[in-house]
Amino acid sequence: MSGTPPMSTNWPDGTETVHRSVVVIGGGQAGLSMSWWLTHRGIDHVVLERDRVASEWRNRRWDSFCLVTPNWQCRLPGFPYPGDEPDGFILRDEIVQYLEKFVASFDPPLIEGVSATRLRGRSDGTFEIRTDRGTITADQVVVATGPYQVPRIPRMAERITDRITQLHSSAYKNPEQLPEGAVLVVGTGQSGCQIAEDLHLAGRTVHLATGTAPRVARWYRGRDVVAWLDDMGTYTRGIDQFDDADAVRFRANHYVTGRDGGHDIDLRAFAVQGMALHGRLTGISNGRLTFGPDLRSNLDNADQVSESIKDSIDAYIEKAGIDAPVEDRYVPVWEPGPEADDPADLSLEDAGITTVIWSTGYGRDDRWVELPIFNGRGYPTHDRGVTSQPGLYFIGLPWQHTWGSGRFAGVAADAEHLAKKIVATRRSAVVTGLHWLAGTPQETYPTDDDWSAPRTVA
């Protein structure tokens, strides 16, 4: 590695190109964890963050947001959860404080307010990163831009009249920001279910269009289910141990909550309390919504996943001879009526719906990376974050290696792995040029009019 001293946290004056051994693009928990390991290995580097530390947590989470994993799973490198409630669930503002304290603990070479606009290879085997504030070159680059890049909203949203307020879940803050009236939440991943609960507890009339996301119990046999699964090695199982890695990577997360000390999210209980549940939203026309006949199967499948997780915990307890209390299994508190199997359409006006919240996931936008390391769906190909382009790495991808990749629980291990790879890499070969696998960059990534972000997070 170069012996060049670390860059200060101010962008250099002048127009000359600055060179660093490693450039980390992205200053979230993944990029900062990478910086921690590079710092402790004495590797010259800089971290570029387009906004400020913890901006995703500050700006794209609602007011009552909290982690769904217990605090003891906050395991950033050299900085485990410092509070006195390891089994609790820290709130949004406390997550921001945790990251700020992590930064203060090792003072990374971080430059905030710099957006990378282009990453390309140079003929000498190094990399060029163009930003909105100048150009920097590097021997090696780590892309840590995270999975929550482009909010995905289906095209059918265009058929809803302008009189209806529409927003993506990333823009939701609290019930008070919405106009009076009923709210339709589309999607039952973690965000959709928690936002529906937030609105429901505030006394709003909620319609929830369900999907196929599974659920998990918060507590079982005397412990948080996360604690059981952690003991069972679930969170350290590598993606290479699954038969179909792609299916695992794009699988929706189990819905549960850490709100008010943590509890199950039971959509059937919401229905008993007055929330209107529907199958998948399949169409919008002339102010009317149509839903699929899958509400019953969506609820049943979510329950089945939850109960199967309990089965695995039971088996582990028995095999290990653990003395744990016995717990009765879940009994459904509500069943859809026969109309759910052949649902009629719903008028937005008749239902009094004035807001639609699209909890329909995120995609990536890596068109600024002009290197041939993507598959046909726009997803970076890699082996535990190491791409086929020597010296280029990714960190913070969902299931990059384990369930915890990109999360507070497992990103430290991924960063340590990449730091070892960076140290081992030697830039001795001089390449004569980099070529696209097929076509031109524009053909590989079409123009904005024809492009939609490839899905990364449900």
Can you walk through the features of this model?
The chain has 458 residues and is of the alpha/beta class. It has two domains: 229 residues, 3-Layer(bba) Sandwich (FAD/NAD(P)-binding domain), CATH 3.50.50.60; 206 residues, no CATH class. Helices cover 23% and strands 20% of the residues. It has ten helices and 23 strands. The strands form six sheets. Strands 1, 2, 5, 6, 7, 8, 21 and 22 form an eight-stranded mixed β-sheet that branches. Helix 1 crosses helix 9. It is globular. The two termini are 39 Å apart.
Provide tags for this entry:
single chain, 23% helix, 5-stranded parallel β-sheet, 23 strands, 20% strand, 458 residues, alpha/beta, 2 domains, 10 helices, globular, 8-stranded mixed β-sheet, FAD/NAD(P)-binding domain
